[in-house]
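note to self — DONT lose this again. spent like an hour looking for the file last time. sequence + predicted structure for the chain T wanted, 590 res
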Amino acid sequence: MRNSLLKFFGYLLYLALCIIAVDYAFYRVYLHQVLPAGWSSWENPAEVMQNDKDSTPKDFIKSKPAGVVRIGCFGDSFTHGAEVNEHSDYPSLLRKLLVRKGFGNVEVINFGMTGGGFHSVFDLWKYFAPQYALDYIIIGPSCFQTDRDATFSSGLNYPVKSALEHFHPRYILTGQGMEEILLAGRGRDDRLAAYTRFIPPLRYLRYDLRAPAFLAAPLHILVPGRSLKNPFYYRRDIESEMDEIHSLQLGEIASHTPQMIVFNIDPRIVRLTAALRRKNIAYFAVKYQEHVVFPFVAIGGHMSPGGNLFLARLLASSLAGARESRQSVLEFIPLPPPTAAKGRDQESSTRRLSSYRDVHIEVAGSPMGRFFNSAVNAEQYCVGPSCRSEVDVFNDAVSLIGFGAAGKSLLDRPFLALDFPLRPGMRIVNKMYFRGRLISERANGRINLLRAGFPVGWAEAEMIDKWIHHPHPTWLDLQIDGEFDAMEICIDGKTVFSGKRLGKSGIVRMLPSSGSALLFIKADGRVPFNPDATPTAGLAYLCLQDAARKNCAPIAVFKKREQIFPVVGVSKPLTAFGSSGPRNSQLNSH
């Protein structure tokens, strides 16, 4: 009996060693694939701050001059001003706005951290910002992201190789409040080795939501793209954990700051701030989804110069103690229906779009918009402060087709780049399939050209009206009911979209077919935009430009109007700190 038990346990040990050996083999391949070429780690986030804006700390002496009021802006890449030039981040624009209104003794410092979660932002405030003696602190409009704060790496939503390029400490909950957990290791190489160890140090096994390497490696190799959360994580209620930590951090900042503004695109953060019940905190939500429209958003999803100006004006109103911000906005509406036209001269040009030097959207003579393909890394479009467009999103495309919707401008609608020319009246047809059999075929709109002979058209396709917006879409998710499992969208008999129903849901994921590319129009981060300087009404144009000439066609109508945006004013407005500027109410004007 004893020998049988020994054999049994010996066999179990043998199996365990075999499994560990196979797992370790996966781990070696995994390690080779995910180790970054260049990376950094820091205990103090100030070490990795970018200094490419007019408003970053390098431009200010640490000792605050007498009579100066200092405002510090904290957040992630939205605060830093990713995708715009050195003059168009919202802290720089806020400073210019205040100076124009007579507040020449105000300095606005940009402490934005690209890729930073709020745990890193909190450390930046705690260990670095006190040297600048800030009178006001502004936090927003983003950076409270669980995927960044529940790990020691860049974030769970990044590919592993990208996530391992930066490490940072994080905070955890304890019985007494919160505690900062530092990185394991003494130097950069030592820290990377510790974090990627087959069995990591206990602090990572307990407090990092990213799965340890011995669990992540087999999944990474066998099922690329799938992720696994750490089953040994010290909490199960992760959202509640983040809420508690963020509340403690906001409360500590408020306890050491004369005046504070928290404005955020996430209503959850606004609710957390309200629950603190601090008189020195002003808080309000920014309805980001209402402003993810042209021309507020740049190619990679950050605010454009116009979007940052919008934020700066909201904050100027809050600093003035106001309850609202009156701003001029441009409303883009569809073009009137085209007049009927006949003849072959209506066919679009067969010249390749990629042969043009520039393709852009022009408003009031300014080249404000560009086409964007989400399948291409947005960083390739904008490099450094100049934000140069370097990617040809058209490849060998001949024409563009935009999918309109009743009452909505084409500037906020999806486009397809096609490898064939367009003609007015070409039919858009939907084909429905069930188990490989065609069960339905019906017309879903006809194509109009923006102008005779112009290689861009549009159609009000009923199916595309059911498009579900995603921040960075590489496909179209359509909400469609019916008994079918696959679908095609065809133009003049050529399939341009094909897709399948996602499980039993009513969502059909449509991918561009060969020869097509899904495009969207976003603002150019290099081009300033001030709606006050535009006419009260006019046309937006789509322009094709080469060395010889510029060929434009109207794509939308714009009208300027004044809109009121609610804000919450600080309890001690800017003049309460001794500014010699004009009355507070003037900050709220144009």
